[in-house]
Amino acid sequence: MATLIAPSLLSADFKHLEEEINIAVASGADYLHFDVMDGKFVNNISFGLPVLKCVARCHPLINDVHLMIDNPKKYVARFVDSGADIVTFHLEACKNKIEVFDTIDLIHSKGAKAGLSIKPGTPIKEVYPFLGSLEMVLIMSVEPGFGGQKFDESALDKIYYLRKYLENNDYKNVLIEVDGGINDITGPKCVKDGVDILVAGSYLFGHEDFKERLEKLKING
User: Fold this and answer.
1) Do residues 44 and 10 touch, judged by C-beta distance below 8 A?
2) Is 184 one of the annotated active-site residues of the chain?
3) Which residue from 10, 29, 153, 171 has the least number of CB within 10 angstroms?
4) How many structural domains compose the chain?
5) How far is CA 36 from CA 122, 139, 146, 149, 220, in A?
């Protein structure tokens, strides 16, 4: 499968958001990544339902929503109603396994795909019990909350071992996504170890050669 690219709107110029999205589409992006932060789960606030609802249907890409928020179960249905095709929430934001499964079930009941994300400090084995219910696992290669951080090399081991686990246990429909510090050097490393989707923000947005940069991620992948 070809590497999928998900430009992260966190790094886009919000004064020209429609233009930024059009550039991503024209450059060959596959997903559009929405980083939602509440100032509680992570020490930053970004954007939420109004932005997603405003732009979700004005482009042909998959709306890939990453919730970095407390109590995700309370909000996932509203994000699907606002246009999310995939809703990814954090394992660390849930009190127990039952809450994780309930949140996944709620996302599915609304007709969207479900993803589960982990921070750099969380062992990859913590996602294994949920793989039979998921469509995606998002491995954070930086501490969630801010764009432009340096890639954490420990993510490569997580990607490698998750890919092996998926293959050995016949989880054919679970995609691996990575987010944080992705560029034309770190991206190919991730793909080599088994990543399907690269989330890239500051590497793409704010550069006149957006298309060329995105193509490097696809080609190198």
Assistant:
1) no
2) no
3) 153
4) 1
5) 20, 16, 11, 17, 29
Write down the residue that tokens 């923000």 correspond to: 201
Q: What is the pLDDT of residues 89-136, one digit of tens each?
A: 999 999 999 999 999 999 999 999 999 999 999 999 999 999 999 999
Lowest mean pLDDT among 9-18, 69-78, 95-104, 160-169: 9-18
Q: Catalytic site residue 209?
A: no
pTM: 0.95
User: Residue 73 is part of which domain span?
Assistant: 4-220
CATH number, residue 130: 3.20.20.70
SS3 for 109?
A: helix
- Residue tagged active-site, from 30, 38, 179, 196: 179
Nearest 5°: CA angle at 24, between 70 and 181?
Answer: 55
Q: Which residue has the tokens 């179960």?
A: 73
**Can you give the pLDDT at residue 43?**
77
Beta-carbon contacts of 44 under 8 Å, excluding residues fewer than 6 positions away, are 37, 145, 146
The answer, yes or no, to whether residue 6 has pLDDT greater than 70, is yes
What is the per-residue pLDDT for 122?
97
CA distance linking residue 213 with residue 221, whole number of Å: 12
Among residues 35, 38, 64, 196, the one annotated as catalytic is 35
